[in-house]
From TrEMBL:
Gene3D superfamilies per UniProt: 3.10.450.50
Tree of life domain: Bacteria
Start and end residues of each SnoaL-like domain: 8-104
Pfam family, one: SnoaL_2
UniProt protein name: Nuclear transport factor 2 family protein
Lineage, opening ranks: Bacteria, Bacillati, Actinomycetota, Actinomycetes, Micrococcales
Length: 117
């Protein structure tokens, strides 16, 4: 299984607003850790987030680095887009993804490059 392509497919689905494509990428028993939100457990939580809770209205991910180590993938990139309040945003991010044997994300951790200290 080509985890590079599987990972790129996820970001294309997010950028296209394809909620079903995003859900198909996550395993049924997934956990998504994202700053500012409690851990999202399972498909219903992921659907609620991408179907409306997410503060991002639209945008695109530019992937600068993608590393595969067994069933784990690390991604570094920049997201550029518009938030639901109309403001523009450009933020660096890092994602750490663990895939199951079917090539679906069972755990994802996101980090954002924002000044906090």
């Amino acid at each position: 299984m080509d985890l590079v392509e599987v990972t790129h497919r996820y970001y294309r689905a997010v950028d296209a607003g394809d909620v079903q494509g995003v859900l198909d990428w996550f395993a049924d028993d997934c956990v998504y850790h994202r700053p500012g939100y409690g851990p999202m457990h399972g498909q219903p939580a992921i659907a609620a987030f991408y179907g409306g809770e997410r503060v991002i209205e639209s945008g695109s991910h530019q992937l600068d680095q993608l590393l595969v180590d067994g069933a784990s993938v690390s991604v570094r990139g920049v997201f550029t887009g518009r938030l639901k309040d109309g403001s523009q945003v450009q933020v660096g991010f890092a994602d750490f993804i663990d895939y199951d044997g079917d090539g679906r994300a069972r755990q994802r951790r996101s980090y954002f490059d924002t000044p906090t200290v």
